[in-house]
Amino acid sequence: MVTSQTTVIEMVISALNEENIPYMIVGSMAASAHGEIRDTHDMDMVVVLDTDSVHRLAKRLGEEFYFDLESAEGAVRNADMFNVIHYDSSFKIDFWLLKSDELSQMQFSRRQESTAWGKTRAFVESAEDTILSKLLWNKISPSERQLKDIAGILKIRKDRLDYTYMKEWAAKRGVLDTLERLIEEN
Fold first, then answer.
1. Which of 55, 99, 158, 173 is the most exposed place for a label (fewest CB within 10 A)?
2. How many domains does the chain have?
């Protein structure tokens, strides 16, 4: 029997929580938590790791996941990313090391607790920051998927979003026109 996606997500979240490794779920999983749910075959997470914590994480996940320790150590050294893959389900988790720029630090400080993935508490990027992240990814590589994720969040959370915050950061990052158009359309 193949392990369910929710079970795999709970395994990773539990490992991070138990090892006191700061993280937040981002990308399509965060968009689904705040907006309209869509299928995905991976999960993106921003993490704060050092050499010691990456070794603890590898030990905790190593039996159930393909975990290339050398790649993970390189990601820690270079503030880059690495991934792990659950053997049974082939579900992939991309771990992105937290960047030091002002927006990344702000987004991480605004992460929110959620129970969208089973009973395990998890930290997820805020709805506003998920919108901003998707706008920035869309600027780099235009994609209808990014815009649909944003539209889904706007529809579900419309009256509960901090538009001032989003517009301020969207203007700083050169994506305000796209944000305003999506707000008007949704």
1. 158
2. 2
Q: What are the pLDDT digits (tens) for 60-84?
A: 998 899 999 999 999 999 999 999 9
Is residue 47 a contact partner of residue 98, using CB atoms and an 8 Å limit? yes
Q: Are 44 and 116 part of one and the same domain? A: yes
Domain hosting 41: range is 1-125
Nearest CA to 155 out of 183, 125, 177 is that of: 183
pLDDT digits (tens, 9 = 90+) for 1-16: 567 888 899 999 999 9
Q: Which residues of 92-116 are buried (b: 16+ CB within 10 A; e: fewer)?
A: bbebbbbeeeeebeebbeebeebeb
DSSP H stretches of helix in the chain: 5-18, 27-34, 51-61, 69-78, 102-109, 127-140, 144-157, 163-172, 176-185
Whole-angstrom Cα distance, residue 86 to residue 109? 29
